[in-house]
Amino acid sequence: MNNKEFISDLTNRTQYNNREVTSLVNAVVSVITNELTEENTVAIQGFGTFEVKKKLERVLFNPITKQRMLVPPKMTVSFKPNTSLKDRVKQNQSEESGDF
Questions:
Q1: Which of 13, 22, 56, 66 is deepest in the core (most CB within 10 A)?
Q2: How far is Cα 86 from Cα 70, in angstroms, rounded to an integer?
Q3: What is the pTM of this model?
């Protein structure tokens, strides 16, 4: 599902028009982005948790050139799904796999 399909689906499920839904989605993404930029954790009940993690510096070895390279530390964004979301996905997957 791309952004246009997502907005269309939300428009069909709610009483809001396409412009209002687009504005709401943009606002939610903006808030999440701002919080993660400040290295805060964002937990959405029933969905999951977004958090910023720091990857430590490490040494990589290129087996072809026999050269070692230092990879600097960096910040990454991770998502941990809520247990209820995981269960729903597993349930849906088991229902689909049983349709042989």
A1: 22
A2: 36
A3: 0.75
